[in-house]
Protein 1
Amino acid sequence: MGGVNTTRRTPGRPRSTEVDEAIAQACRELLVEGGYPAMTIESVAERAGVTRPTIYRRWPSKSHMVWDVIFTTPADAVVIGDTDDLRGDVELWVSATMAFFGRPEVARAFPALLTEQPLEETQQARLRDPVREQVAARLRRAVREGELHQSVDPGLVFDMVVGLAVYRGSVPQGGDPKPAARVISDQVLLGMILRP
Amino acid sequence: MGGVNTTRRTPGRPRSTEVDEAIAQACRELLVEGGYPAMTIESVAERAGVTRPTIYRRWPSKSHMVWDVIFTTPADAVVIGDTDDLRGDVELWVSATMAFFGRPEVARAFPALLTEQPLEETQQARLRDPVREQVAARLRRAVREGELHQSVDPGLVFDMVVGLAVYRGSVPQGGDPKPAARVISDQVLLGMILRP
């Protein structure tokens, strides 16, 4: 695994793509194997077959590198539907969010990154957009169409689902069966109070 | 701040109480000042005015020490009411949970602890009990009394509120005003779907 032959590269293909992928893969492997605190720039460089300066030219610190590596995918992978089926749309988002924060490398890295305060603004923005905005737009549409309460707080709903996903990704569930995305969506949408 | 005079101690009072408190205070201070990754057993010992062996006699590792320090209080502080007002009872628990995970030393330490897998069983148990069981008991009572759906999943509700509290404790909220415990309780209890 890992290792990039920098002398033999495909003509026309930018070298950085290959190196970036080798670094990303090394990062993911080392996170899963030993966790975030034990991982160093040095260990990533060695596993990826690159030099430390190669990494430092891209990122100023370990946390910047890991942010980039784990948040490369979700902008594509985590989405909310925009169909006429509100429950289905929300369920899709919940399911993708649980899957993302349940990935071994994300579960090992994300909570650790949260403790490295203060998060820089670019990292905060990456954390929030565009999924946060998509979810808010879908919920506001449902309010306009009379499906949801006027009082819905999209930011609260977003943080509740992401918080649950982060927490369940990190804390073993013991005897509880892992609830499906539909159960979680229904809890968020319907609440617990009996209908009158 | 910190520092324990181990030569002058109150007669009849066990020395360990004083030392424990000095270590706990040193831990909290260093977590707030520099975060979990930067904190070492050495720095805690120095700040507390004790030797490293004094700390290692109590805990086998930094994470064990920090777990003990940050979870000493919540068993008393985080509770759920057991009155006849379900919304008030839940609001009390939500409010205490948000306050606990919003404490600076907890926000800096808790997410980092989550990445130190596998959590040992005693730590998992400490994380879950007794509050998790109290919440489940209150919700089951409400189901019996016809206030809540039969389908309520107390573990899901617990993880959702704790997950939200952990996440909001760590991630700056940007422009969003911090929602009050009542808004969060209502989201959990009532959901978002318009009543028929």
Note: The mean pLDDT of chain B is 82.
Protein 2
Amino acid sequence: MAVEHTVKSFDDELKGLVEVVSRMAGLAEAQLQGAIQALVRRDGEIGNRVVQEDARIDDLEHQVSALTVRLLALRQPMAGDLRDIVSALKISSDLERIGDYAANIGKRVIALSQTAPFRLPAGIPRMGWLVQNILHEVMEAFTERDAAKALAAWQKDEEVDETYSGLFRELLTHMMEDPRNISACTHLLFIAKNIERVGDHATNVAETVYYMVRGEPLDAIRPKGDNTSLLTMPLPDGA
Amino acid sequence: MAVEHTVKSFDDELKGLVEVVSRMAGLAEAQLQGAIQALVRRDGEIGNRVVQEDARIDDLEHQVSALTVRLLALRQPMAGDLRDIVSALKISSDLERIGDYAANIGKRVIALSQTAPFRLPAGIPRMGWLVQNILHEVMEAFTERDAAKALAAWQKDEEVDETYSGLFRELLTHMMEDPRNISACTHLLFIAKNIERVGDHATNVAETVYYMVRGEPLDAIRPKGDNTSLLTMPLPDGA
């Protein structure tokens, strides 16, 4: 790696890094919003746009990686600055995954827009908006370096997990009532799971922000509401 | 962060880092194997053991993070060494996720061991063994610093994705045939998806190993065989 001369100060480069991460966050939020909108309107075209746009988030993640390696290699930062840089890298990888989940929802909406009409459980968009809200607050906490705000957002993920558990039951019930629902409900199950995973990644970001600001891990155990992996459904009547 | 004096050489510390990552990989492989075995035997106790053991992988990931930050802060590595360190950090985060997926399979096997008997599609354990194999080869490539081996393992993931697409159809068909299958098949769908995701993370590790050894990204586009997000199922007769 060639060592380049540069007139930019270390602080400027660090600010540049934070800026790219914030831009990634803005895109990730917009993608999630687009995916939920596509689902509610059953609009395959919006879904397709979300799929296409995902490459922009991936590009920004590569930028963050390059900036990080450059800062580490050329600037040899210590303690606090090092924590900021490693945190930016971690957050960018969570945001990239959030983008992937939004794109996967987009893909599934394309498939759903071609199936017979189905009843969309209100819990799915509700969960989507909730997660969007958490992500927004977490990223505010990042730019404002506010550990308390990160912690507050982090605690809201419990509601997401509970909503998801309820949805899981509801969708399985729809499938059992009428096999014509199975194909659509399976996509809806994965969409709900994707939203729940976005919530988990927003939670990761909150933990990273807390660590970045306070210099110590947020090691209280996160309230865990998703227990659907343990769920066995009652069989329908006569089964 | 206090700067500590140490008699260990940089090379020793770097070797220590690689060793912890290799230990994580060994555990992740064992966990995946345990999860598949639990599924095949429909053994909730093995499933439970896999769930409990996951904490050990998480602990090792924290060790990797701490070692990495220490190496970066105190040793101010350049170019090649920096790449090794950042690669170890990335790989450990993929291995941690693989551990999570194995634990989630374990949880679902506990649930499945309490349901009525069901037919386990042969494709699920087959896909599990295939992914285990890929992970094993990828980690050999890591310790041997063999970019060609990483690339060869990376290419096998296409078969995983194809197997998954077939399974997705098969499981939906079982559900449509008989609603009593829905609860078990839904868990099996998520188990199959978890295994497919483990394959994706093994693929990420292969990319990181390639980059670590060659110093340039493996940017050929990965063959993509999982298109189930786009799938619409034909409805059953009379539906």
Note: Residues 1-5, 234-239 of chain B have pLDDT under 50 and may be disordered.
